[in-house]
Design brief:
By secondary structure, this protein is an alpha+beta fold. It is built from ten helices and four strands; from the N terminus they run H-H-H-E-E-H-H-H-H-E-H-E-H-H. It folds into two domains: 3-61 and 107-269 and 321-440, Outer membrane efflux proteins (OEP) (Up-down Bundle); 64-104 and 273-311, no CATH class. Helix content is 63%, strand content 11%. InterPro entries: OMP_efflux, T1SS_OMP_TolC, TolC-like. Pfam families: OEP.
Length: 449
């Protein structure tokens, strides 16, 4: 017996089970979503936006050089005084280069860079959170397709059984061993079976469309998923792992750190800034000076200077104080958001563990229900054939078995999806945890400190 047949043990759906040729695995589906899903792509773009804040912050503390060039025509010039020297040219060209080297700003640039790097790290955790959410959705869609394909097969088989039952009831009526009521009951159950098959088919189409949206291609020949990795043994274990690894908590904590650096930046605005400066300038009057005065005053020349500047806010209308208070308030917000994230994840971990355990127990009871209903149906068929029970009892047993089989399929789907959701809450369901090829993994431009 293959693993797929074992998974659906006791359910007559061999006709709809995918073959092993060109089958798609859950790992391949997850990798497809990782490559193609626009939600992941958008989060990566957000990381690139955050990464550019680091060189922008660094630039404020780096030397700058700027140049300028000016050409000027003097359209109105005065006359030289008698015996004086005329130095107003008719035209002139001036070129300048100026350099500014920040020396000390009381930690403003350093704080800005630290805050930017912290936010890059937070964006990485945001990507991990997005990956976990997406992969949970992909697992759900994958299992939905498997379940709905099996349910369609069960309903198709049920339609075939009902058609045979109608034919048998008609034949027995002709033989005089069944009345018209049995035929009508069988035909009514056939109509119900056909409507259930149509409903199951529509649900399968919906599941396949959701799969395409998440993964980027159609679901074809899906294999059964592999067993989940080792799961926590108790809610406490789940919570402890989640507190240590959940990316939402990690992101909130790093955002809190970034808010602390923002306070340093805001406070630095109230202190002086020291810079070294230098420049060089060259002028050329382009031969437009009076020939009598030009040689004395010089037709062209070069000047240069070096020095230091001190820029100190004396009166800024309360701007620096407001910036500091605002930064302190933002850190208070970040503190509370980090605390809220921890509480949220604790609740999610406990809830996910309970859901997974409940779904696992339902799977066991559903399997027992299928086995019991199979035995009931076998007995009903024998007794109806012997004339000991009415046909309606057999029809009811057929429907109860179908319901039990669908319940078992749904329970197995729910147990697997709940287990993966628990892993995601615990921070164990991002791309690195799923053993993707390292060449596929997103490589950040800026490495967090």
């Amino acid at each position: 017996m293959t693993r797929k047949q074992a998974y659906f043990a006791g359910i007559a759906i061999c006709a709809i089970l995918p073959s092993s040729v060109s089958a798609e695995t859950l790992q391949q589906a997850l990798e497809g979503a990782y490559r193609n899903n626009p939600t992941i792509s958008a989060q990566r773009a957000s990381i690139r936006v955050a990464e550019e804040d680091v060189p922008l912050a660094r630039a404020a503390g780096m030397p700058t050089i700027d140049g300028s060039a000016t050409y000027q025509e003097n359209v109105l010039t005065g006359k030289p005084a008698p015996g004086g020297f005329f130095s107003n040219p008719d035209r002139q060209f001036v070129g300048q280069l100026n350099a500014n080297v920040p020396v000390f700003d009381f930690g403003g640039v350093r704080g800005s860079m630290s805050a930017a790097k912290a936010r890059v790290e937070a964006s990485h955790f945001g990507l991990n959170k997005t990956e976990g959410d997406l992969f949970s959705a992909v697992v759900g869609a994958y299992m939905d397709v498997l379940r709905d394909e099996a349910v369609v097969g069960l309903n198709r088989n049920n339609v075939d059984v009902m058609r045979y039952t109608v034919k048998e009831a008609v034949d027995r009526r002709r033989a005089g061993s069944r009345g018209p009521t049995d035929v009508a009951q069988a035909e009514a159950r056939l109509a119900l079976a056909e409507s259930q098959m149509e409903t199951a088919g529509a649900r399968l189409i919906s599941s396949k469309e959701q799969y395409i949206r998440l993964v980027g291609h159609a679901a074809e020949n899906l294999e059964l998923p592999p067993p989940l990795p080792q799961m926590p043994s108790s809610p406490t274990d789940a919570v402890e792992t989640a507190l240590a690894n959940n990316p939402e908590i990690a992101s909130a904590r790093v955002q809190r750190t970034a808010a602390g650096f923002d306070i340093d930046v805001a406070r630095s605005q109230a202190y002086p800034k020291f810079s070294a400066i230098g420049g060089i300038s060259q002028y050329d009057y382009l031969g437009s000076l009076d020939q009598g005065t030009g040689p004395r005053n010089g037709d062209r020349g070069t000047t240069a200077f070096v020095g230091v500047t001190l820029k100190m806010p004396i009166l800024d209308g309360g701007r620096s104080g407001a910036q500091t208070r605002q930064a302190l308030a933002k850190q208070d917000v970040a503190d509370k958001q980090a605390f809220d994230a921890e509480g949220k994840v604790i609740a999610e971990a406990r809830s996910a563990f309970a859901t997974w355990q409940a779904a696992t127990h339902v799977t066991d009871t559903a399997q027992r229900g299928v086995t019991a209903n199979q035995q009931v149906l076998a007995g009903m068929r024998a007794e109806v054939s012997a004339g000991l029970r009415p046909l309606l009892d057999q029809l009811n047993a057929e429907q109860e078995l179908l319901n039990a089989q669908v319940t078992m399929l749904t329970a197995r789907r729910d147990a697997y999806v709940a287990g993966f959701a628990l892993l995601a809450v615990m921070g164990k369901a991002d791309a690195a945890d799923l053993n993707f090829d390292k060449a596929m993994l997103y490589q950040p431009t800026v490495k967090p400190d």
